[in-house]
Every structure is written in C-alpha cells, then in structure tokens.
Amino acid sequence: MYRKMLSSLFSIGALVMFAANANATVLVNETFEHADGALNGKTPTPGPGGAWTDHSGTANQVTVTSGTISLTDSDSEDVNTDLGSVYTSGTLYYGFDFSVAASPSTSPSDFEYFAHFKDDGTDFTSRMDIVAAGASGDYSVGIAGSQSVADATWGTNLSFGSTYRAVVEFDFGTGVSKLWIDPSEASDTNISSAADNVPDLSAFAFRQSGSQMNETITVDNLIVATTFDEVASVPEPTSFVLAGLGLFGLFAVRRRRK
Questions:
Q1: Is the dihedral of CA 115, 117, 123, 124 positive or negative?
Q2: Alpha-carbon span 128 to 124, nearest angstrom
Q3: What domains lie within the chain, and their CATH numbers?
Q4: Would you tell me the crossing angle of helices 2-22 and 239-257 to the nearest 10 degrees?
Q5: Is residue 178 within 8 Å of residue 191, measured between CB atoms?
Q6: What's the CA gap between 240 and 158, in Å, rounded?
Q7: Which of 7, 77, 93, 132 is most solvent-facing, going by the fewest CB within 10 Å?
C-alpha cells in the first residue's frame, strides 16, 4: 500500500513539474551550482541555450566559487550563453542577484558595464553599468541601450557588500531598455535608455573590464526569460515538491473518506 502511495506521490510531483514547465518561457536558469573552476564550457540548466563560451579576453578567467561567479576589473574574459534562438520581436528580460565589494578607489569617475544582451557578433544592448556614487552612498548602477556609457542612473545609491536583484528588459518594439532594482512588479520604479538600433539578439553575456572603481561584482541566480515575473524573483527550489505533497495529501484524505 505504501509503495503505491509513494509511487502516486512521485507521479503527482512529476505532473506538477511538467505542468509548470509547459507554460514556462525561461531561456536561461543559472544558479552556478557547478564544480569550482572556469565557467567557460559549463551549461546552465534547464533552458534551450548552450554552454558558456568566451567571446573576448583571456579564456577561463571567469570562475565559479561556491555557487557564484565574480567579475573583476583585473581580468578580461567576457562570456556568453546562447538563448537557443534568434529573437527579433517581443520582449526579453534578464535578472540576477549581485553585490559589489568595497572599492579601493574613493573617488571613481568612470562607468563600466558588466552585463548585456548580444547578437552573434559584437552588437550589444541593455548594458547594465556600475556607476560612480553621488554625494552620498557607495556606488550606483545604470543602464545603456547600446552605448558603452550609461545614460540613465538609478536614483538611490547602493551599498557595498549588500545583495540586490537587478531586472533588465529589452523591448524590440520601442528599442528601449529598462532597469529595476529589487522590484516586485513591473510598475515599480525603473530607469530606461533607448538603443541606437534594434539588433537581433541570441545570447546573454557578462563582461569584465578595467575601471577606476576597481570593483569586484559577485553574481548568482541568473534567469533570462520573456516575461518580467519569471526573472523578478528566484523560485524556491522546494516549491514543486511542496505542491506535489499538497496534492498527495488531498489524494490520501479522499481515499480514507472513501
């Protein structure tokens, strides 16, 4: 009897996971739970895209450490992961958790982007920047449609060592990129930047480049998808199991009543 009940539980859990994935439009789901070492060659799962590959700089400098990656200005490797298709319409989103280590420079003045969408060449858009802080605070962030320097800056300075969730949208219809920090819904405060052109997009990338801030950026829980809700928060890993257990409990109660 218990074997049959256990079998039913797994069957229900599988159905719940299948139903959830059937409606999913997640293109990249990367928790960086890989063995420590170079990110290059490792494959995000699940998702239709391919393994991480470098497209610029010195290979194998972006490394996985304890389930996160770090981007520094002392290294030069830029890496990307394929989205599984070429996108020319609609909207694309990326979201990830990030923190920035305290900067050795007390008065940085340059802007450096470290995350963006790209085509199969060197056409980039939706570039998220680390930006020098204003009168108070540690640093800020910005967004650039296609230029290298952010032309919109987040209105509130952020703190070194604190973790935030960034969400970025690219709208093919308008050519506008938007950036949110710790949003709960799309109507929350955001900043935007228009692209000079609307490229065909096929990959998401991280970039490392020298800057006066000398920052180290730690990144985790990357999601690329076609809707805001799918990237704004990281799903709890136990959600599907709990749903399956709930359905199983209902199933068991109904059997007992019969």
A1: negative
A2: 11
A3: 1-25+239-258 (no CATH), 26-226 (2.60.120.200)
A4: 130
A5: yes
A6: 34
A7: 7
